[in-house]
Amino acid sequence: MAHLFEALKIREVTFRNRIAVSPMCQYSSNSEGYANDWHLVHLASRAVGGAGLVFTEAAAVEPRGRITPQDLGIWSDTHIESLAKIVTLIQSFGAVPGIQLAHAGRKASVAKPSKGGKALDESQEGWRPVFSSSAIAFNKDSPVPTPLTREGIQEVINAFTQAAQRSLQAGFKVVEIHAAHGYLLHQFLSPLANQRQDDYGGSYANRTRLLKEIVEKVRAVWPEKYPLWVRISATDWIDKGWDIEQSVTLSKELKALGVDVIDCSSGGIIPGINVPVKPGYQSQFAERIRREVDILTGAVGLITSPEHADQIIRSGVADIVLLGRELLRNPYWPHVAAKKLGQEKVWPVQYDRAWL
Ligand code: FNR
C-alpha cells in the first residue's frame, strides 16, 4: 500500500514522495514575463522544503494569455534562461521541476489581487482584445472577448506546443497543461462559456477538440520519457455546466493521447457559484477518475494535515497530493509531515538540529 512518502515513478521520472507544490501565480514578473529572484527563491525553498514535485505558477504561452501584466511567461526563447536557473536549483535540492502552461482567455488583462483584481484596459497596462471560445464576458466588469477564429485556434495550439519545447530546453521534467479554473481551455470545454456553432463548440466532441489537439501536439514534442499532466476543473458545480461524467470521458481520451496524470481541481468558469468548500472537497473527483479511468490522479484543495494527505494516498483516492496555500504558509510542511507520520527525515543535513 502506497503512502505519502513512497517514491513514485512516472515514465522515467522518479518523485521522492507524493507531495507536489500546486501551481500558484506569484504576480511578480516584470511586464515581460521573466522569472526573477522572487521565483528562484520561492520555488527553490519549496524544493529544500522537501516536496517531491515543484510546479511553477501558470506560465503564459502568449502575452495576451496572461491573467495580469505580472504573470510569468514562456512565449519567447528569451524566457528560457531564467527558468533554467530555477530548474537547476529545484533539482539540486532533490525535487522534480514542473511547469504549468496556461492561457487565460477571457479572464486575461486584470490587475493582480493585491491591486484589486479588476479588469485593466489599455490605459492601465492591460490589453485588448481578450479571446475566448465565444463572445461572452466573464462578469459585468470584464471585456467582451473576441471569439477565436480558426487561425486564432491554430495560433493557440502552436503557442502551447512551442511553450512545451521551451520548457524542455529550460530543463523541466513535467509539463502540466492548465485546462481548469475558467481559463481559455476550460472556456472551450464548458457549455457555460462555449456557444460556438463550428467544430469547436456544441457537442462534447467539439468542446473537447481544442484541448485534445493541444495535448496531441504537446505530446509529440514532449519527450516520451517525461510525464505530461493536465489540470481540469472536474465540475463547474452547476447544472448544464461541465461535470464529472464529462471529466471521466475526457480523462479516458487524454489517457489514450499519452497524458499521465489528471490533476483534479474544480470551478472557476463563472462567478458566484456556491462551492461546498471543506477539507479535501475536490478529492472525490480524483478518486472517481482514478477508479473509472485507471489513470494516475492528483488531489488538490484544502489538504493541510499530514494524516489527511497520507490517507488520500493510502486509500487510493489519488496518487499525488498537491498543496497550495499550506505550502505558502510553510515550505517545510513535507518535513513536518514526515516527522508526524514517523518517516525518516527528508530535509537537508544543514537543518538536522530542527529535527531534534
Ligand atoms: C492558485 N491556484 C492556481 N492554480 C493553478 O492551476 N495555476 C495557478 O497559477 C494558480 N495560482 C494560484 C495562486 C495562489 C496565490 C493561490 C492561493 C492559488 C490554485 C492552487 O493551485 C490550488 O489549486 C488551490 O489553492 C487549492 O489548493 P489549497 O490552497 O487549498 O491547497
TrEMBL record:
Signal sequence segment: none
Domain NADH:flavin oxidoreductase/NADH oxidase N-terminal: 4-341
UniProt entry keywords in alphabetical sequence: Flavoprotein, FMN, NADP, Oxidoreductase
Source organism, top-level taxon: Bacteria
Cofactor: FMN
InterPro entries reported in the protein's UniProt record: Aldolase_TIM (IPR013785), OxRdtase_FMN_N (IPR001155), YqjM-like (IPR044152)
GO molecular function, one term: FMN binding
SUPFAM superfamilies: FMN-linked oxidoreductases
Name of the protein: NADH:flavin oxidoreductase/NADH oxidase N-terminal domain-containing protein
UniProt source species: Richelia sinica FACHB-800
